[in-house]
Amino acid sequence: xxxxxxxQWPIRSSSSGGxxxxxxxxxxxxxxxxxxxxxxxAMREILRRATPKTPALTGRTIVNLFLEDSTRxxxxxxxxxxxxxxxxxxxxxxxxxxxxxxxxxxxxxTLEAAGADVxxxxxxxxxxxxLAAAQVHGSVINAGxxxxxxxxxxxxxxxxxxxxxxxxxxxxxxxxxxxxHSRVARSNLxxxxxxxxxxxxxxPPTLLPRELPIGLPPVRVEHHLDRAIEGADVVMALRLQRxxxxxxxxxxxxxxxxxxxxxxARLERARPNVLVLHPGPMNEGIEIDTATAHGRRSxxxxxxxxxxxxRMAVLHxxxxxxxxxxxxxxxxARRG
Length: 336
Hints:
- It is a single chain.
- By secondary structure, the chain is of the alpha/beta class.
- The protein has two domains: about 30-150 and about 305-320, Aspartate/ornithine carbamoyltransferase (Rossmann fold, 3-Layer(aba) Sandwich), CATH 3.40.50.1370; about 150-300, Aspartate/ornithine carbamoyltransferase (Rossmann fold).
- The chain is about 35% helix and about 15% strand.
- It has helices at about 30-45, 70-85, 105-115, 130-135, 150-165, 185-195, 225-230, 245, 255-260, 265, 290-295, 300-320, and strands spanning about 60-65, 85-90, 120-125, 140-145, 170-175, 200, 220, 235, 275.
- α1 (about 30-45) crosses α12 (about 300-320) and α2 crosses α12 (about 300-320).
- Mean pLDDT is about 90; it is low at about 1-15 and about 330-335.
C-alpha cells in the first residue's frame, strides 16, 4: 500500500456463500444493490419512529477504526450502530497503538480478539480494507481507503437518486471535479453503471485518471462542463482539495471555479428537475455555488440523512440479517 498514490485497481471483494465484508461495489450485481437499498428504506422507516431503534444487533460489538480524519462518515456509522442497539466503540489514530507503530494487521487482530464483530475502517492507504478483511473472521466495512473506494457513500448516493426519480436506470449522471483522487467517484462509477445509469465524468485533464477507460466501467469523459451537463438528470460535484494546487495540477482556485463550478446558471443546461449532489465536506464558492448547494435542486442534506439508513442496512446484512422492506422489523432481531 502506498499512501497518497493512485490505487492499482480494480481490486475485487471476495463473496462466497454470503457477503461478509463490504470493500467496494465492483463485485455487486444489480440485485444485490437493490437488496441493500430496499433494506436501507426499511431502516429509514425505523429512523422515523418516535423511538428510532431496533434490537437487531443487540450483543454485537462494532469498532469504528478511523485512522484518517472524518466527521460525517464516522458519526453516521456511530449513529447507525447505536440505532441497531449494538455496542459501538470509536477509535482514532491519535493515541492508538497504530500511532505507536503497531501494524494494521496486528491492530485488527487485537480488536477481534477483544470482541469486535464488525470493524469499520477508514484508512489513508489504498487497499487497507482488503488487507484488514484477510485477517479477521468477522466483518470489515470500508469507510474509505486512500484513493480507492468508499462504498457506503456510493450506496447512499444511489438511494438518494432513486428517491428522486424512482429509478436509476437510463438517468444521465455527471460527476464533476477531481475524479483522479476521489474514492467516492470510483465507487459511484461501479454502482451507477451497474444500476444502468449513463455516466459522464468531467474535469480538467490533470484531475482525471489516465487509466479511466481501462479497468473501469464504460463512461463518457468530457473536459468541458457546459457540454457535459447538457440534459443531465443528476450532477455530482466532488470536493476540490486545495493541496492539488500546490501539486501543480491546477493554475488557481479561481480558474477552476470559472470552468467547473456547479451553479444555477450552468444547471439551466441540465433537465428542469436536475438533482445536485455532493459527498461533503463542501468548499462553497469553489466547486459548488452557495446558492446552488442550498437551493431547490440540492439533495445534499438528504444524502446525509440517507447515510445513517444505508449504514444501518450494511451493518444488518453483513452480520447475517435478512433483507427487509416496507418498514418491517429486521428478521432475527433479538428482543430484550
